[in-house]
């Protein structure tokens, strides 16, 4: 009876944690889907709306290490419920905003609150399930996260067009606050793997834990390969899917924007389907290092295909090849699963969530750095032509230069994978 109760509680904890991750991933991209409505509402430019959407990542990235410390000390129940509450209230503030400044502050608050959700989810898996299930359950959680992205791209857009962006935002805020209440009521920290040590730290304690924990994790040689490996892979992924992919297909291959956007969805589909399988296979094989290298190789393959198509604009075979590249690129995103497994094993259990926070932050560091670097290469190769008014036209040679840099980066990620160890504690 006790085992049955534990199993039922574990399922509830995991289900609510996965729902929380769904909410975070939805929030991450939902603001960008209201682009024209927000531009008109706040009388701003495309750059202004883009900044409003991306400002979320500033506090989200900065909070990864402190959030990891909170997951290890405060516990997932309080971290998940408080984060969702802050995120939900931020949506309500966003919905009521009359100026771009207030809307931006709301997005900053949302990033701050939701930064710890994924780490709280990982901690709850660690507390309630056997270690051999860690990768599988993380993969399933990732699948639900990708569903959140898909929901923001399709049903949410329909809802915004039907009832307006403010009413839609109020609805999202209300649902997020409701989820926070459910987490508080039903999630518990005292799972089968619970150890005495969760406490209520003050601000000074959290900062000390974050600082000294960060130093400890970075001094651990086993932490660096998964950190840099995932940084390079995610940086390449976001450079293509989040910035240069659609312009590339429009300008080099003459593909309509709507079609290019649809092709880009193949990366989300590939990532969602791969996540469950990769997580299960990582647990089953017990070889996360091999899995990471294979997934990094999938992105290298994607970049090789994309570079191959540059010399074949407008060909039907190129479109098919791009579809294959999109799926392969999306599959590579699952590299974080073996990277997180290795990072967790490489550090003390007391530092596991903090280490995962650092690894999670590495992806956003890579995205910011690689987008800037590739954009600089593209601008260097710009010939002074314009695609449409105010939109630069980049030649095939410029894209070849920028994407070759991405191929070089993922090659370094494979090297990082080869340097990973299963357990570097020692």
Structural write-up:
This protein is mainly alpha-helical. The protein folds into two domains: 1-187, MFS general substrate transporter like domains (Growth Hormone, Chain: A); 219-426, MFS general substrate transporter like domains (Growth Hormone, Chain: A, Up-down Bundle). The chain is built from 19 helices and two strands. It has a two-stranded antiparallel sheet with strand order 1-2. Strand 1 and strand 2 form a beta hairpin. Helix 4 (56-62) crosses helix 18, helix 5 packs parallel to helix 8 and helix 6 (76-96) runs antiparallel to helix 11. The longest helix has 30 residues, at 224-253. 50% of the residues are buried. The mean pLDDT is 84.
Overall tally of domains: 2
Average pLDDT across residues? 84
Q: What separation lies between the terminal Cα atoms?
A: 40 Å
Known CATH architecture of the largest domain: Up-down Bundle
CA radius of gyration is: 21 Å
Along the chain, the helix and strand elements come as HHHHHHHHHHHHHHHHHHEEH
Residues in helices, as a percent range: over 70%
Beta strand %? under 5%
CATH superfamily of the largest domain, by name, is MFS general substrate transporter like domains
Q: Please describe the biggest sheet, giving its number of strands, its sense, and whether it closes into a barrel.
A: 2 strands, antiparallel
Number of strands: 2
The class by helix and strand makeup works out as mainly alpha
Number of contiguous helices: 19
CATH topology of the largest domain: Growth Hormone, Chain: A
Shape: globular
């Amino acid at each position: 009876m006790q085992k049955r109760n534990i199993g039922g509680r574990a399922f509830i904890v995991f289900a609510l944690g996965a729902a929380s991750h769904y909410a975070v991933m939805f929030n991450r991209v939902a603001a960008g889907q209201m682009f024209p409505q927000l531009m008109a509402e706040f009388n701003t430019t495309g750059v202004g709306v883009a900044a409003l959407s991306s400002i979320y990542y500033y506090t989200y990235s900065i909070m990864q290490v402190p959030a990891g410390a909170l997951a290890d000390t405060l516990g997932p129940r309080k971290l998940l419920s408080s984060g969702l509450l802050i995120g939900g209230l931020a949506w309500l503030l966003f919905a009521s905003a009359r100026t771009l400044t207030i809307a931006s502050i709301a997005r900053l608050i949302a990033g701050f609150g939701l930064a710890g959700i994924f780490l709280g989810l990982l901690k709850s898996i660690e507390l309630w399930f056997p270690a051999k299930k860690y990768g599988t359950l993380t993969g399933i959680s990732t699948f639900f996260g990708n569903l959140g992205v898909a929901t923001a791209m399709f049903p949410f857009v329909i809802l915004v067009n039907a009832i307006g962006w403010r009413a839609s935002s109020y609805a999202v805020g209300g649902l997020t606050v409701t989820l926070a209440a459910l987490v508080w009521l039903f999630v518990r920290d005292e799972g089968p793997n619970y150890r005495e040590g969760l406490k209520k730290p003050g601000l000074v304690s959290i900062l000390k834990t974050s600082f000294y924990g960060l130093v400890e994790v970075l001094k651990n040689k086993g932490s660096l390969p998964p950190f840099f490996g995932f940084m390079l892979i995610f940086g390449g992924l976001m450079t293509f899917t989040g910035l240069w992919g659609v312009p590339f297909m429009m300008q080099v291959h003459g593909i309509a924007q709507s079609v290019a956007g649809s092709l880009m969805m193949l990366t989300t589909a590939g990532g969602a389907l791969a996540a469950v399988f990769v997580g299960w296979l990582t647990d089953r094989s017990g070889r996360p290092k091999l899995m990471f290298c294979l997934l990094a190789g999938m992105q290298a393959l994607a970049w090789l295909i994309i570079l191959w198509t540059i010399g074949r604009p407008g060909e039907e075979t190129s479109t098919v090849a791009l579809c294959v590249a999109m799926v392969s690129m999306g599959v590579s995103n699952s590299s974080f699963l073996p990277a997180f497994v290795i990072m967790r094993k490489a550090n003390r259990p007391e530092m596991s969530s903090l280490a995962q926070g650092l690894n999670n932050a590495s992806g956003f560091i890579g995205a910011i750095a690689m987008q800037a670097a590739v954009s600089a290469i593209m601008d260097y190769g710009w010939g002074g032509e314009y695609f449409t008014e105010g939109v630069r036209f980049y030649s095939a040679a410029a894209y070849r230069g920028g994407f070759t840099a991405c191929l070089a980066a993922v090659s370094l990620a494979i090297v990082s994978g080869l340097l990973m160890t299963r357990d570097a504690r020692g």
